[in-house]
Amino acid sequence: KVGLYTCGPTVYDYAHLGNFRAYVFEDLLRRYLEYKGYRVTQVMNITDVDDKTIKGAKEKGVALAQYTKKYEDAFFEDIKTLNIKKANYYPKATGHIQEMVNLIKRLLEKNYAYTKDGSIYFSVKKFPAYGKLSGVDLSQMKEGERADFDEYQKEDIKDFCLWKKAKEGEPSWETEIGQGRPGWHIECSAMSMKYLGESFDLHTGGADNIFPHHENEIAQSQAATGKQFVKFWLHCAYLLVNNEKMAKSKGNFYTLRDLLEKGYSPITIRYLLLSTHYRAPLNFNFEGLAQGRATVDRIGDFYSRLNWMTKQGKFKGYNRILSDKVTKTKKDFEESLDDDLNISAALASLFGLIKETNIALEGRNLNKKNIDEVLQTLKEFDKVLGFLGFEGVYRRKKTKEDEETLEIFKLIAQRDEARRKKEFKKADEIRKKLLKKGIVLEDTKEGVRWKRK
């Protein structure tokens, strides 16, 4: 069993690519744990009350619940589009006010929290381990300073707000600790512990969550319970756009919907977000997206070749070398992901198998059992990767490109037959016909290889 808490969306706007970089990484983590036989309970929060959501609702002149529902619905549509598995629980902050109040009461009773001007703050100096996760220096904190905003910088260590006193025009709740609303940080502690217990296995998020959010979660949770809050923390690095931080002011801010409107497929976007190791910055650009699309298209061509070869039924016999390659690929794939989710090495093993199978296909040096072994392996890998098309979400409809690819295979087969019959003029005519279609043939000892010009 594994308990996994993933920081979810703050539903004040459409989620952007940086958010989805984190959500796809977390999806890979969960899928691989399940692939290895673990039963995962995943909790992802929905922050539907905080500084940002309240500001957005005010600007639109609508109730908070009405404002956040639009973006909450959009979030669920988007994760379905990207084939991200649904978490077991999606607790909303507004539905867990009492759990937050109970946790704050424990902190007040243990003297880790104090009241000032109607709000309640966590006393950072009373938790000596503060800074262990983020590396901040507690000695630099100025006495008596408090943070009323949810987000602030490492250089600005302050006592953080657990409960914010009610303000006119803002949503609030009448509770035994006074009328007000929760601070952002207490929300995740209360909700994660409700569904996963006071101590659980894994907590993930983006690098921007490390301070102050996750540092504050640790402090308030462990101060309240006296137990280790989380055993392992995993954070994904930032997503950059052309090596710059994504920002609306720079014109390089993209949501999933922006890319879909530009004609990019969900499978291409998922592949791009998945293909860089989670702790390495992902530099997004449209050249990389085009390369991702080409990779996905090659996988589609590969499936077409396998299906065509199966229908042809002209095999040379079982290929033991290819079978051994399948076994080695499985081993390499798992060893790579066992090594801190080394996705680059895992994908390299997958593409190596595709390459070796293509060589066998070109020489017809395999049989249906080989093809079934390869397809079964890819099907197992897709339980982890989620972009190979076996889960139904991305199952490709037959396109013009598919028909063209099948026509290429037929012409290559006809040329092979002509060469075997020593009808070299006919074989040369077929080569020229393919060249006019932009297809270059290369005769090798393993068989005929082809590529697009």
TrEMBL record:
Record family assignment: Belongs to the class-I aminoacyl-tRNA synthetase family.
Residue span(s) of domain Cysteinyl-tRNA synthetase class Ia DALR: 332-406
Alphabetically ordered keywords of this record: Aminoacyl-tRNA synthetase, ATP-binding, Cytoplasm, Ligase, Metal-binding, Nucleotide-binding, Protein biosynthesis, Zinc
Enzyme class: ligase
Subunit text: Monomer.
GO molecular function, one term: ATP binding
Protein name: Cysteine--tRNA ligase
Keyword Calcium: no
Subcellular location field: Cytoplasm
Reactions catalysed: tRNA(Cys) + L-cysteine + ATP = L-cysteinyl-tRNA(Cys) + AMP + diphosphate
Gene Ontology cellular-component annotations: cytosol
Cofactor: Zn(2+)
GO biological process: cysteinyl-tRNA aminoacylation
Primary subcellular site in the record, as a coarse category: cytoplasm
InterPro entries with a match to the protein in the record: Cys-tRNA-ligase, Cys-tRNA-synt_Ia_DALR, Cys-tRNA/MSH_ligase, CysS_C, Rossmann-like_a/b/a_fold, tRNA-synt_1_cat_dom, tRNAsynth_Ia_anticodon-bd
Gene3D superfamilies according to UniProt: Cysteine-tRNA ligase, C-terminal anti-codon recognition domain, HUPs
Documented EC number(s): 6.1.1.16
Organism of derivation: bacterium (Candidatus Ratteibacteria) CG15_BIG_FIL_POST_REV_8_21_14_020_41_12
